[in-house]
Each structure stands twice: as C-alpha cells, then as structure tokens.
Design goal:
The chain is of the alpha+beta class and 210 residues long. The strands form 3 sheets. Strands 7-11-10-9-8 form a 5-stranded antiparallel beta sheet, covered by helices on one side. A hairpin with an 8-residue loop joins strand 8 and strand 9. The protein is globular and about 50 Å long.
Length: 210
C-alpha cells in the first residue's frame, strides 16, 4: 500500500499521506464499495476527482486502523465537514492530483490542506492575502503556496464556513522552508492563535493544525 508517509504528530493526532498509484478496483475492494457507487459517494463525474476521493477515503481507513478506530464510513455535518460514522474523532481530508492526505485528532478540531506548487496562486493572491501579508511576500510560488494551504487548513479547522480567507485568517510572517508557522483566526465569536506544521515534498506543500 503506497502510504507516502504516516506520522504521529502527538498522542492524539496522526497525519497520513497517500500517493495515488492504484487503479479504481484496488480502492473499491479496500473500501468495500462497488464502482457503481463512486459517482454518488464522491459527488463527482470526473474520473480524476473520483480517484482522489477514493484515495482519500482509503487513506482515512488506513489511519483509523492505526488509531484503533473502527472505520464505518464518512458523513457530513451541518456545515458539510466530514466526520466519522459512530466515532467522536475529529478528521480533515485533502487531495491534490497525485496525493491524498488526512489527519485524525482524538481531542481537538483539526484542519489540513495540500497544494501542488504552481504560479497560478500568484495570480489570485490578492483574493486571499491581506495587505500586510502581501507586503512581506518574497513572491515565490512556494511561499504563496504555504499561505494558501495554511489559510485553507485554518478555514477547515474552524469548520463553520462563511469566513474570508483574506479578512478573517492571518498568517504571521515566516521564513522559507520553515516547518512550523502560526496563524490567527479572527471571526465573529472567536479570536484564536494556532500552530501549523508545514511539510514539503516533490512539488507539493501540506499544512496541518497541531
């Protein structure tokens, strides 16, 4: 099984990254579903998106086994966040082209995101970065990718939607290739500072709240 890496971030939290290399029958067999169910379960008709969905659920099932959690499937809460069937653990799921990743935390909310490094984020940076964040940019696609992933991770951590990435989530300045950053969520009833771990491999970035 192509677990790219599998790491305990704390006594209560695990992070797993899956490299997508198998064909659809591998995933359906592991998950115990039929190919006819994929479109409905993944809510997608695009073959690549379906494959990413399958890999993310396979990664989640593997991680549940690592945490001694019986995997009975995934439901959506009232804000469309994924949650485990019949278990209180907090989960977050992400996927991008060749990789899927999940984090499970038994004690606190969790958010993670992964992105392939590219110049496309630079073109839309002003939509999700504040003026202060833009002023400290060095302009590299990697740095902008960390900002994007971190803000998406914190958005998922909050879990109630409606926040603005630009106006309600702030990432404190950081040096390139750092493995830890700090973000602040400031929205309606909450102002909280959180730490995130940063991972780099090939041309991908992943951030996760810890």
């Amino acid at each position: 099984m192509p677990i790219f890496f599998n790491q305990k971030l704390s006594e209560s939290q695990i992070l797993c990254v899956w490299k997508i290399e198998e064909a659809v029958p591998f995933y359906t067999a592991y998950l115990g579903i039929s190919e006819n169910q994929i479109e409905d379960l993944s809510n997608s008709t695009h073959p690549q998106k379906q494959l990413e969905w399958l890999a993310s659920r396979t990664c989640l099932k593997f991680a549940c086994q690592e945490m001694d959690i019986e995997f009975l499937g995934v439901l959506k809460d009232e804000f469309s966040n994924p949650c485990l069937v019949n278990h209180h653990a907090n989960i977050s799921i992400t996927h991008a082209e060749k990789f899927a990743a999940i984090s499970i935390d038994l004690e606190k909310p969790v958010g993670l995101d992964t992105e392939k490094i590219s110049s496309k984020l630079e073109r839309v940076a002003k939509r999700f970065l504040s003026e202060n964040e833009i002023n400290v940019l060095d302009g590299t696609p990697e740095q902008i990718g960390v900002y994007w992933c971190a803000k998406e991770s914190l958005y998922k951590w909050y879990g109630k939607k409606k926040m603005s990435l630009r106006d309600n989530i702030y990432i404190k300045p950081f040096i390139n290739q750092t493995d830890k950053i700090v973000g602040v969520v400031d929205f309606e009833d909450i102002t909280e500072e959180l730490s995130l771990k940063v991972f780099y491999w090939e041309d991908y970035i992943l951030t996760v709240t810890v």
